[in-house]
Design brief:
The chain is mainly β. It has five helices and 35 strands. 44% of the residues are buried. Belongs to the TonB-dependent receptor family.
Amino acid sequence: MKTNFIKLATFLTLVTSFAIAQEQDSTKTIEEVVISDTKFAQSKEKSGKIIDIVSAKDLEARKGQSAAQILNQVAGIEINGSNSSAGKNLEYYIRGGRSRQVLILIDGIPVNDASSITTVYDLRLLPVEQIEQIEILKGSSSVLYGSGAATSVINITTKKAKKDGITGNAYFNIGTQNTTEKTNLYGQELNQGFGINGSSGKFNFNTSLNSTEANGISEAQGVNFERDKFSRISLNQKIGYKFSNKFNLEAFANYDKFISNYDLAAFKDSDLNKYASEQLRFGIKPQYKYKKGEIYLNAAFANLERNYESFNTWTLTLDESYYKSRTVNADLVNKLDLAKQVYLITGVQSQFMDYYQSGAWGEVNNKITKFSIVDPYVTAVYNSSFGLNVNTGARLNMHSQYGNNVVYNINPSFNIQKINLRILSSYSTAYITPSLYQLYSAYGNLDLKPEEDKTAEFGFEKAFLNKKIILNAVGFYREEKNKIDFINLSLPPWGQYRNIVDKINAKGVEVNFTYLPVDKIKLSTNYTFTQVENSFTFLQLIPKHKFNAGVDYQITKRLNCSAQYQYTDHKADLIYNPSRTEVELKSFQTLNSNISFKVDKYLSLFAGVTNLFDVDFVEKAGYSTRGRNFKVGLNFNF
């Protein structure tokens, strides 16, 4: 059965890749709209950036994959841990940077964990089934989004009510949990959930509940290591009320929790360690449109708690640690149309965060460990009738501990409509304050300076054959100053966060190619080249070359199949033993395939396989990666 399934999946992949449509071309081009680079909807062609979009259709074609796995296939993004055990922590590397330089938004609201080292949001909390679309804006975006948006902004839009009346769906899928050493066809991962949405007159709502249970692979790499379990539940409630054509109010409440076993370290197993993360978020967004513009407030509160139970090999006891962070974010944004082709975006963003810690790794009192930030900012946008577009702005960071700092950007682009060519360039600065953990934990350092980034980029986007073929490429150069790194010491506390004196330079190229021969076939590829100079510990997991290719084929109105190929170049890593051994992780290639069938308007089925050829590879030294795995599922609409 296993061999036949592999043959079938291989055949479908080959058919998909080399299919030649025999029907008349009916390709339709729809103008894409983006939000990330101005905080308001505008035509993608008027943007001065190459913004990658993972659409609802793309998510459907990759059904069964996690949000981290899907993002890992986007040009310029490397998410280490996305192909490891379900509970493995994720590390984000974009444009030569690392996790703390990536800002994640959910429905336009910054999400983070103020008690963690990097403060970056944990994508393990978010089930992919709640996502409608993802926008990825690469490069420094601190003018619009503040500290932390130094290498990328990932804006995740969750699902909303779609039409009058009440509709809903329920899904269930089951999958395997295999490594290349341990394989079977038993269902060891269960995903299930339902969603109900509707609208009546001025009122709309969307409710979703999702859960996952996985008897997963071992986090650490080794022979006969026990499986590490992972469990997650997520509830998301959104409501909206349209008071008039001018005034609209949206609100949300969100609860996420996951529990996972984890191992001692690289190559070291444990059946005692347990980790739990629990998050509660809620917020509101009132929006008002007036004659020459619109204004809205994005306000949210988040409470996140993490608990660790870790076996201590010195005392042979179980140590417990507790972390808690609270974050308040309020962003008041106004768009004013100054003239037909000119508008001004002004805003004030206020943030508060604190951090509490207790247990084996020391006490941290949140009466002291807190930040407050108030940032006014302004951006001017000019879209000319002859193709010139300019986006330029500045932000004043007013930080409770680090005082005032100014960041700015200038982003001109030119659209030559006659030949469907868009030329773009930008220069921007970013400002990243140390995390509360880096300042106040047992390894903290109150003398830390903020990190400073400068990024320059130049690129183009060209369309051919009536936009059936789209090619874009961006070259970037990024300079980082005062990088914060963990330095081992010979005296207590044995390690401390410190600023690195040397500057870090990163440069690279990101290329995307999309071909739509007919409306039923989409071929896409992307290539990323990244080179980091003066590389230190946290930067060593960045592959120099990375290539992705995908094909989506709508065989019939009911039958669809897709495949995704990925090549990841070799990279260096450190094993954290007393000698800090450096190892080389070999390059690898993987292939995923998916097929879905719509039985009728109520029922659809899908089957997917990841790492089709069971390639043995390593993402992080000493930790397991997933081998060939299968997943099947069904979805009911009502």
